[in-house]
């Protein structure tokens, strides 16, 4: 009983840390140095520029069906953990945006900004995925596609981000796009390494809606 409690505490602590690291990087590296975005964030921005639609509304419309599919395929525990990770990311990002005194200006060293962004977003996303959650619908989509295609989770992230960034070429400056692509490539490799190396946590749905947490080692 005590061992299971420690495992659960460790799992949620690492999901929380991953969400915090991701929020820190998105605000202090990506936003402050004008790197673009892939995934559903990128699609939201594309909808804004192309059709003057709300990015938040666009992301919500994309997230809802994937959350419903994940509820059926992955179970309730995964959805609750994903809600926890998503809310944690949102709260951390808002706190950084409102109160952080840190300014990381790498505008004169954009290759460095790309490397740092790729490494930290990959690590943050990878930790959340490795310990049984996701930070949004694009993470869920990547998990599902990885499961049913046999491709690594990092490769799926890379392909989806590349598709979104290709669609964004018409409004994103070429220089910004090149450094964003570099960050995405690095992130995809770090995600794969983080998810697949060492100890992983699997969440299996049992009767009465209680999740069972088990540790496996690769």
In DSSP terms (H or I, runs of 4 or more residues), the helix count works out at 8
Helices and strands: which structural class?
Answer: mainly alpha
Shape: globular
Task: Give the low-pLDDT segments.
Answer: 199-218
Topology:
Elements: H1 2-31, H2 39-51, H3 55-74, H4 76-99, H5 110-130, H6 137-149, H7 153-167, H8 174-196, E1 199-205, E2 211-217
Antiparallel strand pairs: 1-2
Helix pairs in contact: 1-4, 1-5, 2-3, 2-7, 3-4, 3-6, 5-8, 6-7, 7-8
Question: How would you characterize the overall build of this protein?
Answer:
The structure is a single chain. The chain contains eight helices and two strands; from the N terminus they run ααααααααββ. It is mainly alpha-helical and 218 residues long. A hairpin with a 5-residue loop joins strand 1 and strand 2. Residues 199-218 have low confidence and may be disordered.
Jot down its keywords:
mainly alpha, 73% helix, globular
Concise summary:
By secondary structure, the chain is mostly helical. It has helices at residues 2-31, 39-51, 55-74, 76-99, 110-130, 137-149, 153-167, 174-196; strands at residues 199-205, 211-217.
